[in-house]
């Protein structure tokens, strides 16, 4: 999780805009309906006892939620089973109590109809999602089963599309939503809410603008009564739905009763930031500014080597020491968190796969993960095994040694085609100059034997055949050995060919990922950060 502090490290610090306990401003009195759900399975007569109970309960929920410091209320009314109604009201975490009350007073118009708007008139089970609040009532006790209700997901899609690099736009959006979700679920305030902005120096083109859009604004919220684990689980599910359903759009919302998220290319929430915690884990991120600035901000070799060894130990625990084998499936730089002492922790298990002790591999039709870190047998055929994590670890090791991402363009070949990090590392290895793959900022400060060991090990981990890759136990033995001279010679990496061919080879994987239940993406832009909004 990012912290708003400045550190002379290789990490680009993510400053999350954490709007938590501040409900001091009001927004426009006009509230837009974003979505609604009123299935026709059950109905009631107007002026019936059930109708009277609904009206009374919604009035009570509006009053209670607007007076609540967290903008939330639940309740039930009615004695007879057929007339009993359960309800929930939630206001967005950045609005005032008066704005909350105004928003919740608008919602019944859509629930009951007014002659002009009759979305849900006479329906017993209704969910109304406005831009600043949501309201739900039902003749069934949905309050007793939040996990079940969380599966009822609705989407709102922007009419604006991203026309250039839509995949990268969604990758950044997913990273923003993921970090906001981590904070909303884990922070110590009563609100399960966070909002923030991610800024890309390169920007994106949209169909409605000739200029680059640089800022992506995001907001996530859970109902305040949820435990951190339940909130995170709910938001993780919505993030997966967002990636599957809203890819290519420049904005959108995913609605569920117990949690919701939104992203836009314009500022849509109130922006008075709270103090940012100083001791928080930070995602590893490689800053790619000018050479001089970059060398001043990078981690030294000892810290990089400690990150490599610590990540290897973490994967070994998941693969062999845990009672149930765990395949992470999305190991990448932004999913390795560093504590205040720069000790690495593997994070984001949203798409992890569990294996029994007897089973070590399987096939899946839902390929999810991050392009550039996915092993070829998984990206193309859906073959899952621990060797997928080993491949991702190899890419990560080479990135740490080089100080750059695998997805960056590294050089132009004789055919004028771009090469990736794996291509470049293999090319230098084949020429007998593996140290050329090392970050130039590490010259004269890194032991050549350790750098050589890591380049050698990284290439072993990204070999095309899974059987040729080492296990994580092998990796740790190699890391703590004296020399790489005893290592087997690596074969050509799986994706060590021209960049254009690489893009074609991954097209199938990208297409399949769009239809998966959930997905993970890496930050692929230069100088990306989440900044505090003034």
TrEMBL record:
One of its GO terms (molecular function) is ATP binding. The keyword Transferase applies. The keyword Lyase does not apply. PROSITE patterns: GNK2, PROTEIN_KINASE_DOM, PROTEIN_KINASE_ST. It comes from the Eukaryota. Keywords: ATP-binding, Glycoprotein, Kinase, Membrane, Nucleotide-binding, Repeat, Serine/threonine-protein kinase, Signal, Transferase, Transmembrane, Transmembrane helix. Residues 32-142, 150-268 form the Gnk2-homologous domain. Coiled coil: none annotated. It is a single-pass membrane protein. Its main location: membrane. It is found in: Membrane. InterPro entries: GNK2 (IPR002902), GNK2_sf (IPR038408), Kinase-like_dom_sf (IPR011009), Prot_kinase_dom (IPR000719), Ser/Thr_kinase_AS (IPR008271). Residues 1-29 form the signal peptide. This is Uncharacterized protein. It comes from Eleusine coracana subsp. coracana.
